[in-house]
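User: My collaborator and I are trying to settle a disagreement about how two of our proteins should look. Neither of us wants to argue from intuition anymore, so we agreed to look at predicted structures for both before our next call. Could you fold the first one, then the second, and keep them clearly separated?

Assistant: That sounds like a sensible way to settle it. I'll keep them separate. The first protein:
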Amino acid sequence: MTILAVTGHMDLTDASVPLVRAALDELMREAAVDGELVGVSCIAAGSDSLFAEAVLDADGSLVAVIPSRDYRETKVKAAHAAQFDRLLAAAAEVVVMDHATAGREAYEAANSELLRRADRLVAVWNGMPPGTKGGGTADVVEEARALGLPVTVVWPAGAARRNG
């Protein structure tokens, strides 16, 4: 069984979405060759949800890790709500972190849970260093590497973020 977790940018440009999705589809096909595929994702907008869809399309099982009890109501924007709800319903397992409200501590706990469950981290990441807020893609990559967890970076040619 292969267990992949994901971290990635939420703010992919519209032109980047099919590029990233194609790269994730290829990665899932390769991972599924070894048998059962499990993907662990917080199913946030952007990379997390693209990864979750690729896992399901490869006949894998999805584990959704939700950062807090209020995450759906307070953090899932209207544009992402239908996709979030569909992926949550398709998940074989849903883990809700023990935080009442979404925020830095909840996100860091969810990221740690992703890494705890994974054999490998898939990072949809432009390679830039961590920002100052914490809990971002680069922070999760650093945490995974510190734990000795293999990291596969997915950033196809032409991929870009809306905000830089």
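The second protein, kept apart from the first:
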Amino acid sequence: MKILLIGASGTLGSAVKERLEKKADVITAGRHSGDVTVDITSVDSIKKMYTQVGKVDAIVSATGSATFSPLTELTPEKNAVTISSKLGGQINLVLLGINSLNDNGSFTLTTGIMMEDPIVQGASAAMANGAVTAFAKSAAIEMPRGLRINTVSPNVLEESWGRLEPFFQGFNPVPAERVSRAFEKSVFGAQTGESYKVY
């Protein structure tokens, strides 16, 4: 089995890579590192990545940038960063990647707890998380050739707690290793249209 993992060098992506490569060959992709490089905000870059990689059995996204800003300071320009990356970038990975998946393959995208449990300065990220979740649920009923699509919605990670605690006061962080199991479930399981919440 061959898996393309986008965002493999990040905190979450590293844990996902470690888990998935126990059962499959993992091809890594990232903006600045990996077996191939990709900028998910660029349609041309995504197309080039898929051409380089060829056919795979699963496409996993553990990436996507989002703007954190007080609502009164959240401009259309700042919000556009989230729209082009966390939202549009992940959706374009699906739209442009369908033909790169073998029959019965799968997509797994990353969202997050903020869409259901809001934090101050998190409106832009919550918007993207909710939209990606809705897209995957709807796309699941139209996927051809037995393809599946799911999302993973993690809580704030323990590994990032020292930096992010001021934004997530009162939350219970989860280890990236535990979140990686939801990706494993999505890739190797049989469900589709699901949002795996690791809270």
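Some points you might bring to the call about the second protein. The mean pLDDT is 98. The first strand starts at residue 2 and ends at 6.
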